């Protein structure tokens, strides 16, 4: 009986008769991506006045070097994030294709004499 109901639910879902129905995936939602989105680095701010002396300029230059290193790290992290999200979307599309195939098979089997 439970198999028959699951098959009928598959037919209802496959035909789009109901907009929102139950789920055959279990008690949890489809997992979200585990990709870590990088945070943009914070710019060093305005440069000091030349009247503040060489120490202030050297300190500012150190902040700029640190920012440039942070940008390089951010760019790599952004590329990694993009690759991770692409893999997540590709895997999700493959999951949907497998589910669609399973539903189509269930409908075909249900319509067999």
Choose one word for the global shape: rod-shaped
Largest sheet: none
Helix/strand structural class: mainly alpha
- The total tally of domains equals 1
Unreliable runs: 1-19
Distance between the termini: 19 Å
Radius of gyration equals 27 Å
Mean pLDDT: 84
Tell me what the structure shows.
With 113 residues, the chain is mainly α. 64% of the residues lie in helices and 0% in strands. Helix 1 (2-15) crosses helix 2. It is rod-shaped, with a radius of gyration of 27 Å. It starts with a helix and ends with a helix.
Could you list some keywords that capture this structure?
single chain, 113 residues, mainly alpha, 2 helices, 64% helix
Protein topology:
Blueprint: H1 2-15, H2 54-111
Quick rundown:
It contains two helices and no strands. The protein is mainly alpha-helical and 113 residues long.
